[in-house]
## 1
Amino acid sequence: MEPVIILRNVWKYYKSKHGSIAALKGVNLVVHRGEIIGIQGPSGSGKTTLLKIIAGLERPDIGDVVVEGYNLNLLDENALALLRNTIVGFIPQDYGLVEELSVYENIEIPLLLAGMERDERKARILELLQYIGLEKRERVKVKYLSGGEKQRVAIARALANTPSIILADEPTANLDWENAERVLQLFRKVNKDFNTTIVIVSHDPRVLEYVDRRLILYDGVLREA
Amino acid sequence: MSTEVIKLFLKVYTISMGLRYAIILSIVILIHEILFLSTSNIWLYVSIIPCSLATLVYADKKLLRELHEVLIICGSRKLVLLVYKVLYTVFMVLSSCLVPSTYMIVKGYGVPGFLLFTLSVIVVLMIQRFVVVFS
């Protein structure tokens, strides 16, 4: 199987009042194309840091991160931005949506940044809305949506430029289990329909029932479950 | 591409900040007009200077920051982010001092109005540089 994400001996430090703290301690990871992997771990174990490093939102202090063949250490900020716009869809824990903008406008942002023409954008957004089952809610402001709907919009936005990788940070954290299951099924559908590689981090063990491979991150150390 | 981002910024800016500024300024101006119209100029300064600071502090900058974060997540290039930051700074400055100083100029206090505007610009830029805006 073809590896799409490779982490080699990745260390990340944060400064605190008591000196330097290692959020990630020599993480090694290989994710293959089309896999859904789940990374479980308690709060503060380094899960979000790990996702941000894969997304190119943060840089490791030590080690290499290779995404779709690109060594992120060798890319400048503009190249990392292009990676996030086209190859990696990132879904933050709080959905990362602009509450005052409509569903349509939120999904439009990555398409605008990709320089897509208006008609083309419209067609793509309608297609995505249909895919996530929110075609009748396109003009509704995000602040009026339920948690489950917000998460689906976040997924649609992440899918906008057809990335090969989706990274989801605690995608079910703010949802009841019924909505959480719908979101997880949507991830499965995306994976099946587009062969998208999906990395989900969560502290919820139930999420891991929906993944192909489970890993545990504890105190900055990653291991197979 | 930048034009579209500017449009997006303007929309979020208008929603998140315009109304609050308008409310604060209306209240301060109203109080000033009713209570202190015929008294010393000092009341004008007493009303207007805190007004500039209040608008700056009270303004809901959450949405603008939200949009900034979303732009980063969605893969905005450095140049677009720079345009966004410049817009943010310019609008913060204008919002916090343009309206009150215009009010002063309209009331016939041109020189103090201009001085307030200049002072506010300096204060706002210092605050933005040293505190939180682009942290």
Note: The first helix of chain A runs from residue 47 to 55.
## 2
Amino acid sequence: MAWVWFHRFGSPPHFYRLARRLTPWFAWPAALLCAAGLVGGLVLAPADYQQGDGFRIIYVHAPAAWLSLMVYVVMASSAAVGLIWRMTVAHAVAASCAPIGASFTALALATGMLWGRPMWGTYWEWDPRLTSELLLLFLYLGYMGLRNSVDDIGRADRASAVLAIVGVVNVPIIHYSVIWWNSLHQAPTVMKFGQPTMPASMLVPLLLMLAGFTACFVALLLTRARGEVLRRERNARWVGDALGQT
Amino acid sequence: MLKFLQMGGYAVYLWPAYALTAAVVALNVAWARRSLRGAQAEARRRLAMLKVAS
């Protein structure tokens, strides 16, 4: 059963049509979840007892940081699937992840700096969490640069897949950096075992924003991956039919 | 309303963070659409070329 699904999803024409049909089912919930999360985070949640209203930066910073890691894991795992099973769709998904992941990593760093200035008294510190997140940005940029430097799309897919897979070791380092080392950055609030260290009025808007950003990423990924599939399937028969529909 | 915009004195850090986020999301939507349209246009050109050739 799972293998039937795997093969159907791996079929480029099937993926192209499925992705087109699924996109609005992620884009609209993304908009609604973020709208609800913004009202909850900016208006309804009480001010923090230590950070006052400044803590509300968390509602954009944490979702951006979550995507920076999640997108990388999606990119590295689909690159691995593409490399192992020579699956065109998987390579297309991996290639689509990079620009999205890079932009949200840059956003996580920028919003983190804007949060760090009033709370820590500095925009930047060579702290384990900040440094490993900056390395993540360079991994995304290196992946994109490597792809750009190889003309043949199949070779670009395979070479960049190796880089993506090797770079995945940075992901647990980023996540656990605040626990392993004495970091300026605060410890996880949501992504940990046990009770969340936030009252529901603060936590619920954060969860809404996390879900909204994730749905937004899926919609962006499906849109980009359709284009990437077309670029790899330019000589396939189904392309004419698919373009005829839209 | 003014009190909301002042954000307890954190306005100069908070609103730029939200503005950047809005910009990154909007740019991502625009870039993703442009990338798909570009691929579709290229595929159409190629189909037209193949038709002429055959």
Note: Chain A touches chain B through 36 residues (CB under 8 Å).
